[in-house]
Design a protein that fits this description.
The protein is built from 11 helices and 5 strands. The protein has about 425 residues and is of the alpha+beta class. The chain folds into 2 domains: about 190 residues, no CATH class; about 210 residues, 2-Layer Sandwich (Heat Shock Protein 90). Strands 1-2-3-5-4 form a 5-stranded mixed sheet, with helices on one face. A hairpin with a 4-residue loop joins β4 and β5. α2 crosses α5 and α9 packs parallel to α10. The longest helix is centred in the middle third of the chain and has 45 residues. About 5% of the residues have low confidence.
Amino acid sequence: MSAAARSLFGRRARLRWVHLILGGALAMPYFLVGSVIIGPVTGSTDVFGSFPLQLASFAVGLPLAAISSLFPLTRPLESAGVRWLCDVDADRIAMGPARTWGEKGRTAAWFTLHLGFGGIIAGASLALPPFAAVLIVLPAFAELRDPRLGLPEVFDHTWASALAPVAGAASLVALAGCAAGCGALLARWAPVLLGPTPEDRLAAAEARAADLAVRNRLARELHDSVGHALSAVTLQASAARRLLGTDPEFVREALAAIEDTTRRTVGELDAVLGVLREGDAPGTAPAPTLAADLDGLLRRTRAGGHRVTARVEADPEALPTLLSREAYRIVQEGLSNALRHSGDRVTVDVRIAVTAGRLDIRVENPLSGSASSRPGGGHGLRGVADRVRLLGGTVTAGPTAAQTWRLHARLPMTP
């Protein structure tokens, strides 16, 4: 099918034609009300028998349609029709009710145009095809020239009768062209009259940004809690397997640590997934903090065979809840890195102190061999950097001259 034929009879053109026919159907009640007004005004008893009076009735009905478009559901319904039938991108159309007078005015203009164009195209679609069909078959049926059938007298001539099929086919093509043109105009005007305002676009952008921020936060929580738990459980199970026959007490402690780690992680996972599951109530497990679980975090890490020395020179109970929670995750990530990337049974040094109005956190452990990078740990360190940045602090992570790996974060005590 050529481009010209597709523009007149393709799927898009057909759907827009349907949209116009629906507009004509919606215009019919207003047309009938207009005819009730025009009849007494003109003194006519047969409004439908006069084409000028029909046009006058239609013209009177359109302002009534504009007034009725103030009904709140008008814009959502019209917007849905435009999206489905006019091939207009969804993000260019506002689906909610018109709130301001400007939006209501644009909705009224759109509704009037839809019903105006739709009424004209629908009327032509009802009247023109039968007339065109008569013209097409006119040379084969001479009795169709009977004046009582309403054909123009010009078709009584032989030359006109021979050209009648051409005129009939041309009238159908003209109808398709008018429908396609009106449909294209409505599709072009729809984003202007039914589209979101700059305020709507700003609100949508802010909502998307807020949703993205929530998703990023949940991703960090999942990475930190589940990632740490898997590293810890793997190391604890490995240590228990190696010492199964020689140190039953250590194996018992490792299994208890695995149970404690998995139980706590399932609670944290349920809390995070509760936020992600739309319609579900969020989980009730509180986010861990230094005050609530620092000792448990260190104990579970030691159960995997690592020696952890901790110097806590700050009162966890006195820290703000948000600061304590984020500091816990930073310490957790530092210990997770040590579990994943250092050798067996190494010493991990943890220091938490308050200096110069800032919470100072350091997690340090020996490098494994001559490695100076940690493949696979980038997401966790990026998560730490995001947490620190949101709190207005600073963070560094990397090898030191003493062949250790150090994670060092400084967080302000107050926002």
